[in-house]
Design brief:
Length: 212
């Protein structure tokens, strides 16, 4: 994994291979969903690398062991609706004890500005580290808005996990929230006139849920 200025890019061959399948316009919604979930597990493994452990005593069938378990209130995973749902599913396979929050944001097709329509976070989110998930970081508007929302609840930390990021999106999220680490599987060069990442993978929500 490459790390520069709080941006982590997953160059693992399995992740790269699966992202290429996601990009392919002939990949079906079923395959797309499965791939998003699989990649989220693989990425989640690294994103959770620094969660704190504590020692406990456990009785094994043949004695006692000092063993390590995850300490404290742990994690909350927060998908940005809709497309983030696909990533949250995968992440929860890896970290089933994580609490789940939801933030509903869509981009206005004309202005490309984010529009919020829903927000429900765990009541104890202020005691948790948050992993915010959304497959696409395009203009960065949705991610910045979601981070702003979450910060109002004084959470312990926020990491942003996406599949494909644009350079513009990374720059904006970094500029507005330099404390938020960005994890992604690919960084694409540009956005088109509709704010879509090029080459990207198209509309992540539509491809996940087969709505187009
Ligand atoms: C997509 C994507 C991000 C957002 C990224 O959602 O899942 O949330 O666009 O674009 P931005 O970085 O320019 O804000 P979309 O608005 O298509 O909503 P949907 O998931 O409900 O389809
Ligand atoms: N949202 C998407 O789903 N895809 C993009 O390329 C940009 C925003």
């Amino acid at each position: 994994m490459q790390n520069k200025d709080n941006v982590f890019i997953f160059d693992h061959p399995l992740i790269q291979h699966k992202v290429s399948l996601l990009r392919d316009k002939n990949t079906s919604s079923k395959e797309f969903r499965e791939l998003v979930s699989e990649i989220s597990v693989l990425m989640g493994y690294e994103v959770t690398r620094d969660i704190p452990l504590k020692e406990v005593e456990i009785e094994t069938p043949v004695g006692f062991a000092r063993a390590k378990v995850i300490s404290g209130k742990k994690l909350a995973v927060v998908p940005i609706l809709r497309a983030g749902l696909g990533m949250a599913d995968g992440f929860l396979n890896l970290v089933p004890m994580a609490r789940v929050g939801h933030i509903g944001i869509y981009r206005d097709h004309e202005t490309l500005e984010p529009v919020e329509y829903y927000c429900k976070l765990p009541s104890d989110v202020d005691e948790r580290d948050v992993v915010l998930v959304d497959p696409m970081l395009a203009t960065g508007g949705s991610a910045c808005d979601a981070v702003k929302f979450i910060k109002k609840r004084n959470v312990k930390s926020i990491k942003f996990m996406c599949l494909i990021a644009s350079k513009t999106g990374i720059e904006r999220l970094h500029r507005e929230h330099p404390d938020v680490a960005i994890y992604c599987a690919a960084v694409d060069e540009k956005l088109n006139e509709h704010g879509y990442i090029v080459p990207g993978l198209g509309d992540a929500g539509d491809r996940l849920f087969g709505t187009k």
